[in-house]
Amino acid sequence: MRDILAEIVEKKKDIVREAKERLPLAEVKARLRPGTFRMAERFRAEPWSLIAECKLQSPAKGRLNRTHTVDQLARIYEANGASMLSVHTDPHFLGCNEDFVRVRKEVALPLLRKDFVIDEYQLYEARLLGADAVLLIARILTPAQLKEYLYTTWSLGMDALIEVHDERDMAAALATPAEFIGINNRNLVTFTTSIENTLALLPFADRSRTLISESGVFTHEDAEKLRDAGCDGILVGEGLVRAEDIAAQTRAFVGVGKEQEATA
Predict the structure, then answer these.
(1) Element (H or E) spanning 213, and its range?
(2) Domain ranges of the chain
(3) What's phi and psi for 240, nearest 5 deg?
(4) pLDDT by residue (tens digit) across 49-106?
(5) CATH of 4-263, one of 3.30.1490.100, 3.20.20.70, 3.30.565.10, 3.40.50.1220
(6) φ, ψ of residue 106 in degrees (nearest 5)
(7) What are the mean pLDDT values of the chain's consecutive 10-residue runs (264 residues total)?
(8) Which pLDDT does position 62 carry in this prediction?
(9) Family assignment (predicted)?
(10) Residue ranges of the alpha helices (H) in the chain?
């Protein structure tokens, strides 16, 4: 069976090596300015958060959207209430660093750089691009790396979303002081999705952390189910970019939080 994650990580080694040759780490460090933990600020102010993802392609499903550019998606998400945006910079998702820079210029929302971090260089690079947060995938990092990269991220004024897929990943995430834990509903080998993965892992989570369900959220009912189970927010890509009305779908996912406020 094709292991998509392994393929991405192997290619990422080449991408990082080339990036270091073009712009050495010392030069990256000299250019960047620390962030101000904008993700944490935004999430602490809201009982429910939508991280809307600017994604045009999936390595498993191919092209997902041919009618919008990444920056057009970003403007729609911001105008319709998203708390934060996720921008892919990995080529398997048709992402690139230039997309991130364009979105940074277009919107005021906090931005998560969505990539496969395997080297500390990528953390400094993310901040140079204007990222407010990075994704750290527990599955592709050792426990020591996970903790080290979290502290490095914080030293740059950025937040980190630690992504987990099973109980072992969750244990690794909880062994760090991470504030944000994302439960990915995507099988990392086959890339199929089901929100049942979040529901199965929530009993093993620390509810004092901010828990985000990632991927596989397609309907208002999916979002409600995750909210009622104890999630603090959702990260949605395909469920938005393939929607008939992206703006309306964004408002629907955001509205789950307003419903929560109304019944509190």
Answers:
(1) strand 210-214
(2) 4-263
(3) -100, -50
(4) 999 999 876 666 766 677 788 999 999 999 999 999 999 999 888 889 999 999 999 9
(5) 3.20.20.70
(6) -90, -30
(7) 81 97 98 97 96 81 75 96 96 89 97 98 98 97 98 98 97 98 85 90 97 96 97 96 95 87 61
(8) 62
(9) Belongs to the TrpC family.
(10) 4-22, 25-31, 38-44, 70-79, 97-106, 121-129, 143-155, 167-174, 196-201, 220-229, 238-241, 246-263
How confident is the model at residue 5, as a pLDDT?
84
The β-bridge partners of 136 are 162
What type of residue is 230? G
Give the total residue count for the chain. 264
Question: Euclidean distance between the first and final Cα of the chain, in Å?
Answer: 47
Give the chain's largest Cα–Cα span.
Answer: 55
List b or e across 220-249, with b for residues whose CB sees 16 or more CB atoms inside 10 angstroms: eebbebbbeeebbbbbbbbbbbebeebeeb
Q: State residue 262's pLDDT score.
A: 63
Nearest Cα neighbor of 137 from 93, 170, 110 is 170
Query: Are the C-beta atoms of 181 and 43 separated by less than 8 Å?
Result: no
To which residue do tokens 């931005």 refer?
Answer: 111
Give the count of beta carbons closer than 10 Å to the beta carbon of residue 138: 26
Backbone dihedral angles phi then psi of residue 105, each to the nearest 5 degrees: -75, -25
CB 97, CB 121: distance < 8 Å? no
With 0-12 CB in 10 A as exposed, 13-18 as middle and 19+ as buried, what is 105? exposed
